[in-house]
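Researcher: I'm preparing a figure for a lab meeting and need a structural model of a single chain. I don't have an experimental structure, so a prediction will have to do for now. The sequence is pasted below. Please return the structure as tokens so I can convert it later.
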Amino acid sequence: MLDKIGIAKRIAQEVKSGMYINLGIGIPTLVANYIPASLQVVLQSENGLLGIGPFPKESDIDPDLINAGKQTITMMRGSALFSSAESFGMIRSGKVDLTILGAMEVSERGDIANWKVPGKMVKGMGGAMDLVASAKNIIVAMQHCSKEGASKLLTNCSLPITGLKCVKRIVSDLAVVDILPSGGFKLIERAPGVSIEEIRNATAGRLVIEGSIPEMALN
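Model: Understood. Here is the structure written out token by token.
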């Protein structure tokens, strides 16, 4: 199965030139390190930045320059800083082409739960609800199962919902799956060394398998 870096590398293959992209907290922030330099993309952070670069080397850290997850970052040439009000104006008006988010659960209809576990303290939803309601495309980066081994790809989410019928693709440590318009997880690729049976056993929702399923190609 893939580690967090492997998931980020696979998601970076989904990026196309010309995209404006928002990276959520957690695994999605790692994607910035693996986008090919040949691609012209702009990474957006809802706290008010267009043009996020890779994570800084220790000698280049600026504690005042952070992303929405409060991680220190770098800025690309031509970057822009602005208020969070302007940032959410961009998000809500549909200017973001691709949003990459983490998730605690995803349903077979594309519902996502990624902001709250009942009984646990959270700082708030952040920009997740606006992003899932407005982005043109949403890819989820997540572990296929919980630490206890329970599937996180479900028939119905059990945790508070962030957005309904919004997720298009999931890249997990086991597989790449798409959400079918009629409902269900369609298996697209397997992580290196992972069998179809392992993915089937780890998926609680309806899993659709058609033809030969290739392994992910990770550069």
